[in-house]
Amino acid sequence: MEKLETVIGLEIHVELKTASKMFCSCKNDSMSTEPNINVCPTCMGMVGTLPLLNKRAFEQTVLLASTLKSTISRHTKWDRKSYFYPDLPKGFQISQFDLPIGQGGEVFFPFNNTLHSVRMTRVHLEEDAAKSVHGVDKTFIDFNRSSVPLVEMVTEPDLRSAEEAKALLKAIRRLVKDLGISDADMEKGQMRCDASISLRKFGEEKLYSRVEIKNLNSFRSVESALKYQEEKLKTEWQSGTYPEMASTVLWNDERMATYPMRTKETAADYRYFPEPDIPVVKLSEEAITCLTKDCPRLRKDEFSKLIEEGVDLIKLLSLLDSTELFWSFADLCKKMESKEEKDLALNFYITEVPLLFETYGSIPFSEDEMLLLIKKVNEGIIPVSTAKKFLSSCKKNNNLAKCINDFETLVCSEKVDLSQVVTNVLSKNTSLVNQYLVGEEKVLQAFIGLVMRETKGMFSGREISDTIHKTLEAMRQQKNK
Fold first, then answer.
1. Which regions of the chain carry the CATH code 1.10.10?
2. What's the first-to-final CA gap in the chain, in angstroms?
């Protein structure tokens, strides 16, 4: 059986967060509960209307293309893309063909415990179509979505698995949310994806005919549809019936299968020609610099920096999809002096902090308070178990610093002699001591637990372990004399 390689490319569509639609002044609210209220003659495609370009949507697309390292076109224009479908009343979509806003580029994203990269083909701006609402025996059209600004990102066929495609989509979703240009809620249709998949023999550079899966609107659908189509193509390849022509299919979530839609169109089928009612936009170097200079902080950039500093990639991935938790941890790391402190903080942010955030909708402690707690734990002054108790009992507007101070005051006031406690515990467990002395060092953990119980969390596990080990080694040396 031939060893086959899967080849995947994505077309990612994201609705932009602007006040008005792409070519008219209607409210940009495609999710309005009442259909066909955010409409006008222009977005309904009536004869005699003229489009007016949304400046904010253009600026957002330039910013996005810049963060994807695309080359920003100095001259960019719009084109009419003709096709006939009920949700496209004009019979054409105003899109971009040969002069998109961004060309080329690259995006890095975490996958399988490493950073992967995918080349971008283009980034262009267009209008969304209306929404088809299918009934039992009729289909209705809601024009609230018609002419909503839609940015499309097309990748090169650099992906090699359904899981990798899903990881890229998540990275793009984080990016547009960080930029503040879209909420990218896939359940609301604010982010959608068309995925193209083909096969080839390992080592080949040739690209074979592809199958495009249209309108995937969830991460789960993207992964499931690609896996299904991959297995189907492998079966066809082995049986000698691999399709000779590109085709388009739709994914059915209920049946977990694809079904044919049409033979894939080409540029000639769409009959592209320049949109006569929208002038060419010319950009100077100064204009591009002005549009991209205020780029906000991006998780993808901070993620790469933290990995370079030695933060555990796998653990950090668990924070990446939570904007608040990720930035809270990243900002905290900037004040930390050692990798050990960052590792401690990351463990707390994976276990205790998400529960607090879920309860209060925010993080109920200040950055400085958390920094103080981490330092005290790292110095062995506060045990990890005690620090977890502080965090689990933390309430909104509660003073974490006060908990730390009260604990230190308690330890000082009780003046517990750790060496004496260890000696007492060892004297009560002579059989365990004898096991240690003959080489069974695993009993050390049992002693640590007993001492922790006696000291009620006043000492860290490391401090207790060091004291026990030192005492037992002294006993071993005394025995050997």
1. 418-480
2. 70
390 close to 466: Cβ distance less than 8 angstroms: no
Which residue shows structure tokens 């707690």?
A: 373
- Write the CB contacts of 177 (distance below 8 Å, at least 6 apart in sequence): 183, 184, 323
CATH tag for 418-480 (out of 2.60.120, 1.10.1760, 1.10.10, 1.20.58):
1.10.10
| Rounded Cα gap, residues 168 and 174, in angstroms | 10
Residue partners of 338: CB distance under 8 A and separation at least 6? 378
| Helix or strand holding residue 219 (H, E) | helix 219-239
CA angle 3, 7, 13 (to 5 degrees): 160
Give 265-271's long-range contacts (Cβ < 8 A, gap of 24+).
Answer: 265/83, 267/97, 269/83, 270/81, 270/82, 270/83, 271/80, 271/82
Q: What is the DSSP letter of 41?
A: T
All residue ranges of the chain with pLDDT < 50 are 413-414
Closest by CA to 84, choosing from 325, 312, 310, 269, is 269
Token pair, residue 24, equals: 């008219």
d(CA 293, CA 179): 12
Give the containing element (helix H, strand E) for 106.
Answer: strand 106-111
**DSSP secondary structure string for all residues of 344-381:** HHHHHHHHHHHHHHHHHSS--S-HHHHHHHHHHHHTTS
Q: At what angle do helices 418-427 and 430-437 cross, to 10 degrees?
A: 90
Per-residue pLDDT of 287-335, as tens digits, reads 999 999 889 999 999 999 999 999 999 899 999 999 999 999 999 999 9
